[in-house]
UniProtKB/TrEMBL annotation:
InterPro entries in alphabetical order: ATP-NAD_kinase_N (IPR017438), Diacylglycerol/lipid_kinase (IPR005218), Diacylglycerol_kinase_cat_dom (IPR001206), Lipid_Phosphate_FormReg (IPR050187), NAD/diacylglycerol_kinase_sf (IPR016064), YegS/DAGK_C (IPR045540)
GO biological process: phospholipid biosynthetic process
Keyword hit for Transferase: yes
Keywords: ATP-binding, Kinase, Nucleotide-binding, Transferase
Protein name: Lipid kinase
UniProt KW Cytoplasm keyword: no
Pfam families: DAGK_cat, YegS_C
Domain annotation DAGKc: ranges: 4-131
NCBIfam families assigned: PRK13057.1, YegS/Rv2252/BmrU family lipid kinase
SUPFAM superfamilies: NAD kinase/diacylglycerol kinase-like
GO molecular function: ATP binding; kinase activity
């Protein structure tokens, strides 16, 4: 029998999530069939998640978050402090953390993963003390998050993102940023700076082709083209994580650094605006235990990761994409 037999699960539910509340009863039944005792707590706003975990941690042996990436990230700091393992029932639009961890999108299969009790330790990124699992960004993605109508997101899902993105692209401008790591600094004119902790973001894009959510690093990229419409040529490389090969894309791998802008700019973490620049980024290695399927061995991935670690980029060095694809 599993070590989680008869353990107490605190299940946090966002009833407004796109996949909604109608499927929660079968999920609870599935978890309890896996010998868990489930207490359901609903939340109306993301800040309530952490407060609920702090308030109810004494009556739980594990936390289950039902919702999208924003809901899961909102639980991160409280879960870290509690030391409780976390399960994920993906009810959002993109569900990128679940994708990174190979958690099934089918809700009952995701519940089975939790009931089986196999967990892995993953990294957590923070920006100004706010946690994120996938990506934190400044620029285009933040403008997209601000411009996305919640009703449009709920009704059309990923299509809603695409419609909002077209509107953002037509009016986007570059901004000046200073990135500092270990006392060395570079300055850039950029449309977007993205900082990845995990592997997937934006509904299946890849942060960097060797990125993993337990590699102990943050992967940064900066879009420094003069013509934003060149993004259309880069779309395939964003899906594979090879966008760093383009001359106009600056990349770096770090554990802690700062980003400053000429005026405060909002920072988007996993789809939610939580803070603004100046921004201090840091990775917290293997900070949370999450229920997930066994890690699949992907041929070539380990060697690729070793090569990437051996070629970590100094922010003060030459532009990393020089001489690459144009």
């Amino acid at each position: 029998m599993s070590k989680l037999d008869k353990r107490r699960a605190l299940l946090l539910l966002n009833p407004k999530a796109r996949r909604g509340q109608e499927l929660i009863a079968p999920v609870v039944e599935r978890l309890e069939g896996g010998r868990l005792s489930v207490t359901v707590e609903t939340f109306e706003a993301l800040p309530e998640i952490a407060r609920d975990i702090v308030r109810l941690r004494h009556m739980a042996d594990l936390v289950v978050v039902c919702g999208g990436d924003g809901s899961v990230s909102s639980a991160a700091m409280a879960v870290m402090e509690s030391g409780l393992p976390m399960g994920i029932i993906p009810m959002g639009t993109a569900n990128d953390l679940a994708r990174t961890l190979n958690i099934p999108m089918d809700l009952l299969q995701a519940a089975d993963v939790i009931a089986r009790g196999q967990a892995r330790l993953i990294d957590v990124g923070t920006v100004n003390g706010h946690a994120f699992f996938n990506v934190a960004s400044i620029g285009l993605s933040t403008e997209l998050a601000q411009g996305l109508d919640p009703a449009l997101k709920k009704r059309f899902g990923r299509l809603g993102y695409a419609l909002a993105a077209m509107k953002v692209l037509t009016r986007a401008t570059r901004f000046h940023a200073k990135i500092t790591e270990k006392g060395a600094a570079i300055e850039a004119e950029t449309y977007q700076i993205a900082v990845g902790n995990g592997r997937h973001y934006g509904g299946g894009n890849v942060v960097e082709e060797t990125a993993e959510i337990d590699d102990g690093h943050l992967d940064l990229y900066s879009l420094e083209m003069t013509n934003l419409w060149k993004l259309a040529l880069m779309l395939r490389s964003f899906r594979s994580g090879t966008h760093g090969a383009w001359r106009e894309v600056r990349t770096a791998r770090c554990v802690e650094f700062n980003i400053e802008t000429e005026k405060p700019m909002p920072v988007n973490t996993d789809g939610e605006i939580v803070t603004s620049t100046p921004a201090h980024f840091k990775v917290h290695p293997k900070a949370i235990s999450v229920f997930a399927p066994p890690i699949l061995s992907i041929p070539g991935r380990t060697e690729m990761f070793r090569r990437a670690i051996g070629a970590d980029l100094a922010l003060s060095g030459d532009h990393p994409g020089a001489g690459a694809a144009q």
